[in-house]
Amino acid sequence: MLDVRNRRFLAALLLAGLPGPLFAHGDVAPQPVNTDALPEVGEEWLTENPYRADAAGEEVWKAAVKIGDSGFNQNCARCHGLGAVSGGLAPDLRFLEAEEYGDEWFAERFQHGYTQDGTTKMPAFGPVLGQKAGWAIRTYIETRPEDGALDSHTDRLRAIVADLEAGTADGVAVKEELQQINSGVKTFSGAPVADSTVSRAAEVLSADKASFKHAAELLTLGLSAAK
């Protein structure tokens, strides 16, 4: 039986497959993605994402998310939405499960693109961007948090921002608290760890007060986007 994630994703696919020019890249050229920080994966396309933390380690996973963020928003957001939040004209890739089935579907589309009734709906990114960029983008997509994932923490996060801006926060303690909050953030794909505003703020935060401003800015941006 299909779970909620797959039912939603299949519904998005059906919408994207309806007749008519619902979305099309046309002649937009893929933008290059710098993947030098990622390990090599060979020429032959894999069937499973090699950059997940359990397979490649946390540092590689973090690098893949960062690179995938840039690659997605340069090449995919035009149709699939900024931050992978689809406006409904293309499949919402956040619901593509973070398992073998989702990997196979993503790899096939990324490599070969999609054409309907003679119209290129999605170009073949694989030959241009390469496998490393593809799996980095996949890693970024599958770590998108569920909508409203931080709503129950809004008041506390605002208080943290105020303390950071005032310079009165305990950087180490707040970092640990943010990491704890993020551990409870669920992803649409079922991936075990979300790349959220909270996790990004925790990543840059330290005992050094020079890090407070950046962390506060990231949290403020996330709180604003959630409104």
UniProtKB/TrEMBL annotation:
Entry-linked PROSITE patterns: CYTC
Stretches assigned to the Cytochrome c domain: 63-145
Keyword Lipid metabolism attributed: no
Source organism superkingdom: Bacteria
Signal peptide: 1-24
Record keywords: Heme, Iron, Metal-binding, Signal
Residue stretches spanning the membrane: none
One Pfam short name: Cytochrome_CBB3
GO molecular function, one term: metal ion binding
Record protein name field: Cytochrome c-550 PedF
